[in-house]
Amino acid sequence: MLLQVAHEKTFFERGKKIARTADAGQPISEEKIISFEDPSDLLHLLTTARLALMQVVLERPLSITEIAERLGRDRSAVKRDIDVLADSGMVIVEEKPLPGHGRKKEVRPAAHSLRLEAVLA
């Protein structure tokens, strides 16, 4: 997954390139890209706490409680950060059955790696 700061023009150029690739019958890259036009929006999303959370989740899927324990943070604060990351498309939250009874919410990354890119011109 690529998180980048890019202008609207870049978005449409990438779309045209994908269309040309599809028209040529070539395979299309499965890379997931999340673009921000304003660098401050990216910085608002990627706080130090959320980056630490992403590092934990990139290691392996965990429940919200397990993530909070690993990070030494309050569960409700971790849940709020997970909600923000899920809304942005960076993590996926799935309900899983627990052995015996009950359910848990498991958090996993939306991609196997995360690349940050910001070019200010």
UniProtKB/TrEMBL annotation:
Coiled coil: none
One Gene Ontology term from the biological process aspect of the record: regulation of DNA-templated transcription
CDD domains xrefs: HTH_ARSR
Pfam family, one: HVO_A0114
Cross-referenced InterPro entries: ArsR-like_HTH, WH-like_DNA-bd_sf, WH_DNA-bd_sf
Protein name, per record: Transcriptional regulator
